[in-house]
User: Fold ArsR family transcriptional regulator from Algoriphagus boseongensis.
Amino acid sequence: MGVTQTHLFTEEQNELANLAKAIAHPARIAILQHLVKTKSCINGDLVLEIGLAQATISQHLRELKDAGLIQGTIEGTKINYCIHPENWARLKSEFSSFFESYSACGSTC
Amino acid sequence: MGVTQTHLFTEEQNELANLAKAIAHPARIAILQHLVKTKSCINGDLVLEIGLAQATISQHLRELKDAGLIQGTIEGTKINYCIHPENWARLKSEFSSFFESYSACGSTC
DNA sequence: ATTATTAATCGTAATATTGCAATATAATTA
DNA sequence: TAATTATATTGCAATATTACGATTAATAAT
Assistant:
């Protein structure tokens, strides 16, 4: 045990859960907020901005990249990360439709 | 190690990450979708609906309750769960403002 | 009172995540 | 080429999560 039984759920449910998991850590929230604010940034900035070790930041960046939320372009020895516009929009719309499926009116609890 | 260093982050970042974590599992997404659809439901329904064991569903329900996303009222031997309207609205608005902080126009990647 | 029904809790095993030091890789500069 | 700089990867330890059987608690029905 200890492994999520993804086969029990729909593609949509697993996808939404994975997207949520990608942002389910304050460091990754902080990274995304920094990317949004500065429009782009390099890995080293984040190590200073956030107090975590370089290896840890790199790991969080990879998770965000794997989830498709950010992309990086090589600039010399540095790597310039930024939000992935299309996937960000998709994330936003998937969460929106999830949240909006509930209209608070007729709750019988 | 293995423990998230919450002290490095703002209240807002930790809160958003925790809310994301609450929905970062397909079973919890499925439970919420079922609650949205049926307006209310009991634990036993979910055990049939989803293929997980009763103890596992109960555990997921507690996580959703701890995050404030659902509430339950006792009805005889059963417990009737439903979405927590105010907290759902808060969740929705926090995610909205997070997603909308990024406007896709000026990305320089 | 005893028995059924329903859900929560406990205990435990398996797996995942978080974090970092050390090392490796890749591009730049002297 | 060698040294430097910046990031990725590896290996490992600590902690968290997921899942479920067994048990418990609380109410309902007989």
